C-alpha cells in the first residue's frame, strides 16, 4: 500500500475546467511546470513539436484526438519541458497526466543530427546538403574536392594523419568561403556550394588547396583534384551536384586535376554507361563468339620477311559500331571478367589451328601473342587456369606469347615477377608491350623475367623524319641488345619504316606494311598465300 501511494505521489497530473483554468495539480506537476491552481493554461503554456513548431493549444486541451502524444511544453515562453501526455475527460473536468521524456527526446535529436551531419567534420550529408542549397535564393557554383593521395597517406602514416590532411584542406576552403555550404561526400571528398553573389577565382582556389603543409615536422602534398559546375538559372541543384561529381571523377582519369563540367562529359559518361551495359550482357552469353571476335595481326621476321606468328586482338561492336579496345577492355577488367576473354582467345587459336590443318599447314610453326591484363596476373588462380586451358585445347605453351604493358608491372612488382618466372618455366614466352611508355627504371628491367621487348608505335610513326625520335628508337634498340632480348616493332606502315627498323637490328615487325589485323578466315588465306612461311622453322 505504501509503495502504491509513493508511486501516486510521483505522478505528474493536473485537472482543468472548460475555460482551461487549473482546478488541481500534483506536487510533481507543480514543480515540473511552475503552475498553481487558478492559472489559465492558455496564458501560461505553449505546446511545440520536436521541430519547435507551435501546436494548436485548444486541440490538445479541449478536443484531444490522441491516447497519448509527445510534445514540448514551454512555460511563459522560456524553458521547454519534453513530456508524453495522456488525456482523458470526466464530467466537466479534463485531466492530463505528464510523463517526462527529456532523455528520449535528447537521443532522438542526436540521432536526427547524426543523420544530417557527419559527427567528425560537422559537414552536412548529401540529402541535407541538397535541401539546404534549395533554400538559397541564388544559383551558384558547386565544387567537389577530392584528396587523390588520401589512401596513400593513410597507408604510409595512418588514418588519423589522413583525416588531419582532410581537415586541413577543408579548413583552407572554409577560410576563403565562409558563406559556402559544405557537405561530406566520402572519406576523401567533400562538396561545396558557393552562391553566385560570392566572388570565386577557381584557379587561385585550386592552387591554394594544393599548397604543401606540415604536421609534426612532416611535409605533406595534398594532391587535390577539383571538379566544379557553374549553375544556370534553371538548373536543379541535385543535378548540378551530380555534374560536379562527374567532373571530379573525370579529373581522376586525367593528369588535369581541375575540371569544369561540360555537356560533352555527360555524353562521354552516357556512352561509357551504355558500353558497360552492353558488355555485361555480352560477357554472360553462352557463346562469346556471338559478341566478340579475335583478329590476328601478322608478325614477320625482318631478315627473311617470313611470317612467324600473329598478335591476337579482341574486337567488339555495340549497335553495329566498333568500340575501341582501349574503351571496353578497362571496363571488362573492372568487372573481374577479363579472364573470359583470355580463355576465349585461346579457343580461337585452337580453332585457327584446325583451319590451318585443313590446309595442311602446321599451326605449331607459329607463335601467337595474347595480351594479358595485370588484373589477371594478380588472380591467384591465373596460372593454373591458363595452363589447364592450354592442356585442354592441346596448345603448346612454347607457342604462346603473353604480352604485358610496361606500366602494369610497376605495382606489385615482386609478386608479378614471380608469376612471370613460373609461366616461363612452363614454356610460355613473356613480352613487354608498349615499351618506352611506362617509365620503368633500368633496375626493374634487370630484375624482370621476360623474353622480348615490343617497341610502342609512338616511337615508330615518325622515326624516319624525326631526329629526336630516332635517338629514342635507337636507345631502346641498344638497351634490348645489352639485355640480350629480341625486339618487335609495332605500327610499321611504310617501307622506309621497315627498312629503318631492319637496319637498326629489330628482329620482328608487325603493322599495316604487311597487313592489318585479319579475321580468322582471312588470316588462313594470308598464311596460305605466304606459301613458304611455315617451312623455315625448325621443329
From TrEMBL:
Residues annotated as signal peptide: none
InterPro entries hit by this protein: Cyclic-di-GMP_PDE-like, EAL_dom, EAL_sf, GGDEF_dom, Nucleotide_cyclase, PAS, Rev_trsase/Diguanyl_cyclase
EAL domain: residues covered: 272-531
Pfam families in alphabetical order: EAL (PF00563)
A molecular function (GO) term: cyclic-guanylate-specific phosphodiesterase activity
Matches recorded under PROSITE patterns: EAL, PAS
Domain PAS, first and last residues per copy: 1-47
Superkingdom field: Bacteria
Protein name per Swiss-Prot or TrEMBL: Diguanylate cyclase
Source organism (scientific name): Pseudoalteromonas rubra
Lineage, top ranks: Bacteria, Pseudomonadati, Pseudomonadota, Gammaproteobacteria, Alteromonadales
Amino acid at each position: 500500500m505504501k509503495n502504491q501511494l509513493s508511486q501516486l505521489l510521483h505522478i505528474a497530473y493536473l485537472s482543468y475546467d472548460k475555460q482551461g483554468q487549473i482546478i488541481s495539480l500534483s506536487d510533481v506537476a507543480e514543480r515540473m511546470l511552475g503552475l498553481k491552481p487558478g492559472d489559465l493554461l492558455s496564458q501560461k503554456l505553449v505546446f511545440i513539436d520536436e521541430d519547435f513548431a507551435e501546436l494548436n493549444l485548444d486541440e490538445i486541451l479541449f478536443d484531444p484526438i490522441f491516447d497519448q502524444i509527445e510534445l514540448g511544453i514551454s512555460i511563459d515562453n522560456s524553458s521547454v519541458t519534453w513530456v508524453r501526455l495522456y488525456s482523458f475527460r470526466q464530467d466537466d473536468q479534463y485531466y492530463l497526466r505528464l510523463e517526462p521524456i527529456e532523455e528520449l527526446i535528447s537521443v532522438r535529436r542526436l540521432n536526427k543530427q547524426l543523420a544530417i551531419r557527419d559527427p567528425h567534420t560537422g559537414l552536412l550529408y548529401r540529402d541535407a546538403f541538397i535541401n539546404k542549397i534549395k533554400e538559397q535564393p541564388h544559383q551558384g557554383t558547386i565544387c567537389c574536392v577530392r584528396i587523390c593521395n588520401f589512401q596513400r597517406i593513410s597507408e604510409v602514416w595512418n588514418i588519423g594523419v589522413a583525416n588531419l590532411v582532410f581537415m586541413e584542406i577543408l579548413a583552407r576552403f572554409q577560410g576563403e568561403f565562409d558563406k559556402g555550404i559544405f557537405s561530406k561526400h566520402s572519406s576523401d571528398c567533400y562538396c561545396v556550394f558557393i552562391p553566385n553573389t560570392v566572388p570565386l577565382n577557381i584557379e587561385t582556389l585550386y592552387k591554394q588547396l594544393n599548397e604543401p603543409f606540415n604536421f609534426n615536422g612532416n611535409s605533406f602534398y595534398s594532391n587535390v583534384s577539383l571538379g566544379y559546375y557553374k549553375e544556370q538559372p534553371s538548373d536543379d541543384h541535385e543535378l548540378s551536384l551530380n555534374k560536379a561529381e562527374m567532373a571530379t571523377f573525370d579529373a581522376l582519369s586525367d593528369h588535369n586535376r581541375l575540371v569544369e563540367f561540360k555537356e560533352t562529359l555527360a555524353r562521354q559518361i552516357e556512352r561509357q554507361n551504355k558500353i558497360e551495359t552492353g558488355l555485361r550482357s555480352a560477357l554472360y552469353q553462352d557463346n562469346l563468339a556471338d559478341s566478340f571476335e579475335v583478329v590476328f595481326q601478322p608478325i614477320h621476321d625482318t631478315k627473311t620477311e617470313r611470317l612467324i606468328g600473329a598478335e591476337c586482338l579482341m574486337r567488339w561492336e555495340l549497335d553495329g559500331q566498333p568500340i575501341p579496345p582501349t574503351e571496353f577492355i578497362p571496363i571488362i577488367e573492372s568487372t573481374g571478367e577479363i579472364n573470359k576473354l583470355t580463355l576465349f582467345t585461346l579457343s580461337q587459336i585452337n580453332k585457327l589451328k584446325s583451319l590451318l590443318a585443313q590446309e595442311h599447314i602446321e599451326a605449331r610453326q607459329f607463335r601467337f601473342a595474347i595480351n594479358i591484363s595485370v588484373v589477371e596476373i594478380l588472380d591467384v588462380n591465373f596460372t593454373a587456369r591458363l595452363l589447364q586451358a592450354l592442356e585442354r585445347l592441346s596448345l603448346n605453351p612454347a607457342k604462346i606469347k603473353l604480352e604485358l604493358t610496361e606500366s602494369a608491372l610497376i605495382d606489385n612488382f615482386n609478386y608479378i615477377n614471380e608469376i612471370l618466372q613460373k609461366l616461363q618455366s612452363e614454356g610460355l614466352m613473356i613480352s613487354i608491350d608498349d615499351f618506352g611508355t611506362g617509365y620503368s627504371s633500368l633496375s626493374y628491367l634487370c630484375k624482370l623475367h621476360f623474353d622480348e621487348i615490343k617497341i610502342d608505335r609512338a616511337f615508330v610513326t615518325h622515326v624516319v623524319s624525326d631526329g629526336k625520335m630516332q635517338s629514342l628508337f635507337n636507345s631502346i634498340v641498344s638497351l634490348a641488345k645489352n639485355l640480350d632480348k629480341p625486339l618487335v616493332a609495332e605500327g610499321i606502315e611504310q617501307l622506309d619504316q621497315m627498312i629503318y627498323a631492319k637496319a637498326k637490328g629489330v628482329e620482328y615487325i608487325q603493322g599495316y606494311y604487311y597487313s592489318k589485323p585479319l579475321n580468322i578466315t582471312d588470316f588462313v588465306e594470308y598464311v596460305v598465300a605466304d606459301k613458304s612461311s611455315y617451312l623455315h622453322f625448325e621443329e
